[in-house]
Each structure stands twice: as C-alpha cells, then as structure tokens.
Amino acid sequence: MSLNIYLSEKDIPEGSELILKNNAFFSLNTCLPDDEFTAKVLKELDLAERVSSFEFLGRNSRLMGTLHKDRLSTGAKTVLNIKQHPEKIFCTRACPEPVTSFIPFLTEGNIVFDPKSPFKRCGINECDILCNGIRFTTLLDFIPYLWDKAF
Q: In whole angstroms, what is the distance from residue 30 CA to residue 82 CA?
C-alpha cells in the first residue's frame, strides 16, 4: 500500500469519505495506542509522552499534569488519524507542515494536500507515495513534482 496524496478535493474518487474536521474526528474515533509511531508523533510534534489511550503528559506536565488526548495539536491529531484510519481521506489544510514531516513514516492512508503548502522535510528521503497515478519512492522526486503542480 502507499500513502495516496490528492492535490485537490476534485481529485478524490467518488464515494470516498473526506474528513475536513480532523479535531472532531480524532475526538470520536482515534486513541493513543502504545506503539512506537504514536510515541514519535507525540514527542516530535507536541513534546509529549503517552500515558494511556486517552491521556498524555505535555511539555508543561509539572504544571498541568496529565492531559486528555483532545488537547494535542491539530497536526498530531491529523497524523494519528491518517495512520489509524487509512480508508478515510484527511484534509491537511490546517496543518500541512506536521503532516509532511511524517510522510516518510506513513505507508498507507489518504490525504488532500495543497501543493502550495509548506513542506517540512524530516531528514529521511524514502517514501511510498501515490499521487495522480504516479508512484514516488523518494521525496527528492516527489517535492519537485509538487512544485510543478503548484506553479
């Protein structure tokens, strides 16, 4: 499987479910599993650490104690949504940079990504992306393709 990237909502296959409100979807459908991927997302995007399926310790844990998962950033919620619900299509307009930094770690799922959005690289070049019927295995090939589509 690949991470399917749609550059426009009009490119989404008919009958697919597009999630525009990532925070609301996360609250109702996504948890914090005890795995390496979740730990990496929490640490790198929110400077946080998982406590349970519904709680985490944030960067101000001494002051705030444990926090409910709904207090995570939209970026962290969106990345976890993509990973845990690969059959859905998630809009990344509200948080393109956090999502792009995790593209090499997402080997399945679906997103709508505006090619004019900032693209934050994480230092890893390998990826598994399908975009407009073209498969990309390196970000060095994918990013110029994005730029061509943006301008």
A: 10
3-state secondary structure of 101: helix
Q: Domain residue spans in the chain? A: 3-150
Whole-prediction pTM? 0.93
Task: Give which of 142, 144, 146 is closest to 8, Cα–Cα.
Answer: 146
The 3-state secondary structure of 4-70 reads EEECCHHHCCCCCCEECCHHHHHHHHCCCCCCHHHHHHHHHHHCCEECCCCEEECCCHHHHCEEEHH
Q: How many residues does the chain have?
A: 151
Q: Kindly state the tokens that stand for 149.
A: 């589509």
Asked if the model's pLDDT at residue 61 lies above 80, the reply is no
